[in-house]
Amino acid sequence: MNKGEKKLFNTYNFEEIQKVCKYAHTNSLLIGINGYTGAGKTTALKYYTKKENYVLYILRTVSMNTRSFYTDILLELNPNANIYVKTNIIIKQIIFLINNSENKLLLIIDDSGKFSPTDLEFLHELRESTQENLGVILAGVDYYFIKMRDWNDKNIKGVAELMRRIFGVITLERPTKQEVKEISNAFNVFDENIINKWYEMIDNFGTLFFLIKRYLDQDRGDDIPSFDDQIL
């Protein structure tokens, strides 16, 4: 596995994400993707963004507040937009551009688990104002959707209003034995004992790629540390 080398695999998760993005995009729906860390969400979402037109991909980071989040969306829609205004004006510009687009758009929010209840209120406003011309993907880890239900049960302001508009949520699967084998084979790893061991060890694709890299580095003669795989 050379530095910078990237391979794309048509796993169950990858295909499901392509399908749900297309469905949300075509029908202007708000849909959730519930996937553990290492499920391949970001890879699949970025692939859809690159492959299709009229898709806005935003990664919600820890350092990003509400204003910077919507500023990024606005600049995706119009790089020359005036961003030196209040947040509500930024959102109004976004709504105007989406509703006046001749094509349906899809907003993909990756790592939406960083959203607070207040963020969900703002998203509800955007959703209500653009539901005829904008599909939305909320991609996050399972504990965020659990937290969202907890907020809803506690009647936290703004949460119930958004949850009622979520068309549905798909849950991603752990790697299958066949997927582990096919990915390993793609990197010229064919030892069935090694592959079976990896399948028993892992619960996500990210760890599998780390194990493959270690194996290839060691096979190449690199002096690698003695990792304790029981710790993580």
Quick summary:
The chain is an alpha/beta fold and 232 residues long. The protein is built from 10 helices and 5 strands. Helices cover 51% and strands 12% of the residues.
- Percent in strands: 5-15%
* Largest sheet data: 5 strands, parallel
Looking across the biggest beta sheet, what order are the strands in? 2-3-4-1-5
- Briefly, what CATH class of the largest domain? Alpha Beta
Write down the overall geometry: elongated
Contiguous helical run count: 10
Q: Mean pLDDT score, rounded?
A: 91
Structural class: alpha/beta
**Can you tell me the number of structural domains?**
2
From the alpha-carbon coordinates, what is the Rg to the nearest angstrom? Answer: 20 Å
- Kindly state the number of beta strands: 5
**First CA to last CA: what distance?**
23 Å
Could you give me the name of the CATH homologous superfamily of the largest domain? P-loop containing nucleotide triphosphate hydrolases
The poorly predicted ranges are none
Q: If classified by CATH, what would the architecture of the largest domain be?
A: 3-Layer(aba) Sandwich
What helical percentage do the residues reach? 40-55%
CATH topology assignment of the largest domain = Rossmann fold
